[in-house]
UniProtKB/TrEMBL annotation:
Phylogenetic lineage: Bacteria, Bacillati, Bacillota, Bacilli, Bacillales
CDD domains: PRTases_typeI
GO biological process, one term: negative regulation of purine nucleobase metabolic process
PANTHER family for this protein: HYPOXANTHINE/GUANINE PHOSPHORIBOSYLTRANSFERASE, PUR OPERON REPRESSOR
Protein name, per record: Purine operon repressor
Source organism of this protein record: Marininema halotolerans
Amino acid sequence: MKKWKRSARLVDMTRQLLEQPHRLISLSAFAERYQAAKSSISEDLAIIHETFREEGTGLLETVSGAAGGVRYLPKANDYDALVISKRLCTHLENPDRILPGGYLYLSDLLGDAQFVRDIGRLWATVFSHSGADVVVTVETKGIPLAYATASFLGLPVAIVRRDSRITEGSVVTINTVSGSSKRLGSLSLARRSFSEGSKVLIIDDFMKAGGTVQGMIDLMGEFRAEVVGIGIMADSRVDERLVEHSMSLATVTDVDVKNRRIAVELGNLFGPGGFFDGTNPY
């Protein structure tokens, strides 16, 4: 096996860490791959860690012990989070988004791969230590956000369907009621989606009163799963909400269909008590 030059080693180590977020890689595995002493690997990792920290890319977390190693934790600092969320607010304020019934068109935002990836990094920062085993979303518009978040957390994705499909095999189905229109519906999830008792992170694109999200929470109860976090790209200000403790990047405070005006402000992730309150370096 060839012995790597240090410059090539640093590049390849960085690539491996970036491609495998939250995966624990032992120093022995690095040492064997590069035919280098563990002390040299530790020095290289210190350089990578410092570069990640200075550039706002993330952090390297070291786990001690015989089964220990290092893992890459993608992070976004307060400034990056604010820039991304303000951009989201600006997009949402565009009156051309207003659809009949006061709904908002979001498909262009959810089709912007880089923007969705940026949001995924924010959620990965917020829920980095949630202990989630799986990211859960409901079809269809929440799927890009769920996969972006899961890619930074190194987790699988489970998709809740509004109707059961034969290709899903055995499913669990519950009835739901929309929080705003009181419309009846159903949500289904394949029994093989994840193990009973898993910890789940719910990610979705938009929430009004929270009927769909509450439905997902109820469905998770059928799997004896614990919901450890709820991340919503944008929510709507309503008098009564069915879901508590959700986190949002933006909040739509008013949709004036007649005058073609949308009012949007930063979500509850920002400001006093929010995750990105101006004091978080990552």
